[in-house]
Structures are given as structure tokens and as C-alpha cells.
Amino acid sequence: MSIDPPCTGEAQSSGESPFTCMNCAKQGRDLIDVLRHRDKGSLGGVKDRIGVCGFNQRYVKTLELKNALKAESKGREEAERHVKELTRVKLSRGEWEKCLMDSCLSCDEEKLIIDLMRLFKMGISKTKPVQLMVLQNLTSKLLKKNNNHYLALIKDISSLFKNELGSTNYSLLADMFGLTGGTTAMKHGEQERLDVGINHRVICTAAQHYRGFPVNEASDGARSLRYLQPRLTNSGEVVILGKMWNADVQKWSDEVLKIPRRDASKGDKDDYDALKRLVDDLLNNHQLAKSVSIHNFTGLGTVEKQSLVYCIWPTPDKGYNACHLLKYWENLRRLCFYTESGDARENPINLLTYSTDSAGFSLSAANKLMKPTE
Question: What 3-state DSSP class applies to 18?
């Protein structure tokens, strides 16, 4: 979605650009600047400008880009050929032990990785294969749970698989490969307790996490089966969840249900009567939500792929249309560049796209968003 003003489709009747619209004419300066840099741009006489710090790839020439790609492909082929030649070198069991030991003692991780690749790509001996010895050594180190040198790495891997597999499947994996216990993996992994609605603390974390990479906002629904549940918020207050929220994001601050107290004017004898009155009103007015909308950020860059859930809210059964989604996007875009207090973020979230598994009002909102208005 471009931030440039869209073409109006109507040419100007006079002026410096009579054959273009007003918005297209304003972009003429950038176009001329790009063409000038492509023809005359230089970086201190450097022949290969691509990959040099300080060179903007917008100004790269087509032939220059092809040459850089060809040089990169050739270098990769040479490296792969060199690795294959090294793989053909046959080493004895003792020589492999000495080679791997030297890499470990010198803390040369790059050499250790290359040596392991060479080892597992070569043929396996029928008697006493050295590959099997290496696997048994690594597995025994993990199973003994006393490998302090890689303790932080093992905890990171354990936390990752604990979140991906769940408790039951992870316990089987931990017993097989000697990973940490479920409690240790859970404590080591960073967990964020979310409140219902937009969690501004998660948005601040996302701004630091993605570091300017393009981000996609995705939403999905989860069934809540129309029931109420008490929950302790991050501020230490107990609230009641399960009531359908207003579709307008601007009214979400009034949708959080707090524990009611005795109100003599309404006939309450005690706090229990007040709570029962609230529940009866929700049931009689059919205000219990059957689904919850979950919104999360996902990195579009090749470096950061971790997803961060930042918003959870009970959706209404009807009345939620494209206009409400546009208002939500407008509020989200503002929070990506400004904090809750209105200050500009030092590292804004470059939100570019939106994805969902249901078409409906999402496509309708996107259609309205792309149409130019007055």
C-alpha cells in the first residue's frame, strides 16, 4: 500500500505539466533524481557499488545488478565446489577426532561447522563409523545435563519446542534428546501476560523487536463458547471476560467489566446479588461472545519472523462491518508511529500489509481504503 497520493486521472489544463495530474506531477522530482543517480551516481570510484555501505540500491543500474548477481552466484558455486573437494578427502577416525577437537579448543565455530558438514556428507564406514560416534557423544552430553558451556543454547531450544509442541509432546522430546524439563523451559522462555484489548506494552516491544523491518498484521478468530471468566489484569485488578464488545475501537475503554459491588438502589443484598444481577442481564440480553478475535504482528523480513500477539477482544455476532475495520486500522497505524501518550516512536513499526483467513468485510474494507476520496 503506497503512501504516495493516488493519480486523480485528470490532466491539468495548464502549468508546467499539462499532460499529467497534479499528484503525478509532484512525483516528477523524485523520478528525475533517481534517473540522474543511476546515470551519474558514484561512490568514491568504487567499481562494484552494490553491497557497499552507504550506497542506496534504488540507484543501481540494471546491468550493474546483473553483474553483481552473476558474481555472487559464481562465488557461491566456487565455495560449494571447494567444500565438495574437501569432502572427498578421507580421514581416519583418529584424524577426525583431532580435527574436531582442534576446532572446539580454538572456539572456531565456523571451522567446526564446516568440519561437521564434511564429516556427515562423506561415506559411512561399515565398521565403527565416526559419524555415529559423534552423534553418541553429542547425545550423551545432553542427556547428562552437565554441559554448562551450551546451557543457555539448550534452554533456548527447549523454550522454543515447549511453545511449539505443548506439554505432552515436549516431554517425549525432552526424554529422547536430553532437553530441559518443562518447568525450566517455561521459566526460561519470555512470556507476556496479555490484557483484553490493545496491549500497548507489546506494541512497544514489537517496535524494538522488528527494528524497522516490514511487518504484517494478521488476525484470526478463536471460539470462546459463550462463557464468563474472571481474570487478573497486569495492573492487579480482577475483571470479567466473556461479554461482547462494541465493534467501534474508540469505545473499547468502556467495555471492560469490573466486579460489581452491592447497590442497595437496585435491590442488592450483598456483592453476590450484584454479580448475579450482572450475569442475568448478560444472559437475558444475549451478550455473551461466541468468538474472540486475536491480532498479531508478523515480520515480513528474512531476519525476524517471530509473531507477537498484541490484541485480544470478544467480537459481536453482528454489526461488525468494513467501517469498523477501517477505524481499527486507523488506530493501529497511529500506534505504530506514536506512543499511547502521543509521542513519536524512536523506532516505528513499518506496518505494510494485513492478512486474515476470512474474506467478507476485510476485502470490503480494503476496497474502500484503496478508493480515492475528496
Answer: coil
Q: Which three cell numbers stand for residue 167?
A: 506439554
Provide the strand spans (E) within 133-280. 197-198, 214-223, 229-232, 238-241, 257-258
Q: Any bridge partners for residue 216, and if so which?
A: 298, 353
Q: What is the pLDDT of residues 140-179, one digit of tens each?
A: 666 665 556 667 667 777 777 776 677 777 777 777 666 7
- Length in residues, the chain: 374
**pTM of the shown model:** 0.53
Tens digits of residue pLDDT in 101-130: 887 778 777 777 777 777 777 767 667 777
CA distance 111 to 107: 9
Provide the strand spans (E) within 12-128: none
The residue ranges of every structural domain in the chain are 1-40, 89-144, 148-188, 197-370
**Gap between the Cα atoms of 25 and 43, Å rounded:** 30
**Distance set, CA 121 to CA 115, 124, 134 (Å):** 10, 9, 14
User: In this structure, are residues 283 and 270 in contact, taking their beta carbons and an 8 Å threshold?
Assistant: no
